Hints:
Pyruvate-ferredoxin Oxidoreductase, domain 3; 6-stranded mixed sheet; single chain; globular; alpha/beta; 44% helix
Amino acid sequence: MKPTKNNQTEIIVTGFGGQGIILAGRILGMSASLGDHKESTLVQAYGPESRGGACNAQVIISDKPIHYPYVNKPHILVAMSQAGYDKFVPALTPDAILLVDQDLVHPENAPCDHFAISATRMAENLGNKMMANIIMIGFCTAITQAVSTEAALATIVQSVPKGTEARNIEAYNKGFDYGLSTLKGREKRAAGQTGALAQ
């Protein structure tokens, strides 16, 4: 991921109530502060009705003290609902990174590079749709390296209900591995294209 201004990374996680959006934001923020020993802030916002209504978590991660906790121009947008994507896409710049749940979000005219994962479907295959947010954290960590895997896993274990730790670690690893294979696939395609151009 490109270094950001003042070594500060601004992230918005958005979706609808019931998807664990705020928990995902909290895990990212806590991973940064407790695990990676950086500064972090979390601002959460719910729509008029929490379950099913739009919600978002705004996370800032920085090497220096953070003076303003709200995200204006996200470096990373994680969208798990079409309404959330539609709301925040105007704030994206060409060098931002967009991550979407591809069964729920269709990023028409995305202004920046974007990566897609079937997080909800993968969670259903693991037997619990509620773990889509953890799969997405794994995917986000692999693609953006906003937090370290060690910090993310340690925070997930502390944050999920007792007795579900192993299943949530499995969910994180599924998302992380999918992210790594997505990046590898892109590298191969890029290498193939340069090879073709060189001939």
